[in-house]
Amino acid sequence: MDAFRDYFASLDTAAMLRTALRLAAVLLCLTVHETCHALAAYAMGDETAKSQHRISLNPLHHIDWLGLAAMLLLGFGWAKPVQVDMRRFPNPKLGMALTALAGPVSNLLFALLALLGCKVVIYHAPVGAFWEGLFTFLQMLASLNVGLGVFNLIPISPLDGSKVLFAALPDAAYEKLMYYERYGFILLYALIFFGALDGFLTDAVNTVFDAMVKLVFF
Fold first, then answer.
1. Contact 152/205 with Cβ under 8 angstroms?
2. Interatomic CA distance for residues 84 and 46, integer angstroms
3. Closest among 66, 62, 63 to 52, alpha carbons compared
4. Which of 78, 95, 109, 121 is surrounded by the most beta carbons within 10 Å?
5. What CA–CA distances, in Å, run from 143 to 65, 107, 197, 202?
6. Is the dihedral of CA 16, 22, 25, 31 positive or negative?
7. Whole-number mean pLDDT of the chain?
8. How confident is residue 2, by pLDDT bands cut at 50, 70 and 90?
9. Secondary structure of residue 79 in the 3-state scheme
10. CA 13 to chain centre
11. Distance between CA atoms of 46 and 191, rounded to whole angstroms?
12. Average pLDDT estimate for 108-136
């Protein structure tokens, strides 16, 4: 019994709590992102994602466990892609672009909501450990949502930004690029591995985050 007490006493409970909060924030970010992809597709006439139970706030319907681990450990990751049949859209290219855009836009709006929550806690919540923990969680949620939203707007396949960019191209070029989209992840992960996106991505995320903070707090 004493050994168990000594073991639990030696644990860094603050670090464990922070890890748990980060995990919850990551799950929320990814779940909202993928649910909004599915909702957008359904709103424009494609029921594929709905039939696969992707219009859901249950994280288990969206999580890719390797992608979740990557996001927790490396700062970027992925969920299970939402399957879309663009032939069911009245305007396939526009429908695909709007479906893709729904994910990162939802994250940026979620970040604003989290920052508003931070403001409420700062100015109206009483002092206490619970409210400090809630503020930390909301701050984490805002930061992760901005990172996920900005990252997905990069116009490199298979990120959402590529589908928005492709929609502006002529049909022949669009079809060709969509065919080769499956190989885009090789370029993307090469850029990530060699750090080619580090400076640009950090600057972009910080710029967007700072702008949101100023919007909410000033």
1. no
2. 7
3. 62
4. 95
5. 21, 10, 18, 12
6. negative
7. 88
8. low
9. coil
10. 27
11. 33
12. 95
